[in-house]
Recover the amino acids of this structure.
């Protein structure tokens, strides 16, 4: 009976040692695979960075063009609003002058009417 128990214990120890060795081998393989993946990821990232350089410049030039276009449009709007403001001031001045003329004519007619009624 003791021999059967000793054989079981010896079998468990042998399985543990072989599993440990398999784990060590597998760990080194997975570490080397991970290193290859990291290296390929690093190469891919470097490629993306090098590809992003020209694209970045294209985007920057596009943004610069857009900014100058916006600035030009703002200047045009400002000029148009100034011209519109000047036209409105001129119209206001003309209307005030016409109103004063009409008021003076009305006052003159009222004075004539009062003088005729006396």
């Amino acid at each position: 009976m003791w021999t059967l128990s000793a054989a079981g214990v010896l079998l468990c120890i042998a399985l543990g040692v072989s599993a440990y060795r398999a784990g060590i081998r597998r760990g080194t393989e997975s570490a080397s695979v991970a290193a290859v993946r990291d290296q390929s990821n690093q190469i891919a990232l470097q490629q993306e960075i090098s590809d992003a350089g020209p694209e970045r410049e294209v985007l920057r030039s596009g943004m610069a063009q857009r900014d100058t276009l916006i600035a030009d449009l703002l200047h045009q709007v400002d000029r148009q609003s100034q011209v519109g403001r000047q036209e409105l001031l001129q119209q206001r001045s003309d209307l005030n002058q016409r109103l004063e003329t009409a008021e003076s004519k009305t006052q003159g007619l009222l004075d004539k009417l009062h003088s005729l009624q006396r």
Q: What stands out?
A: Residues 45 and 51 are 10 Å apart (CA to CA). The mean pLDDT is 82.
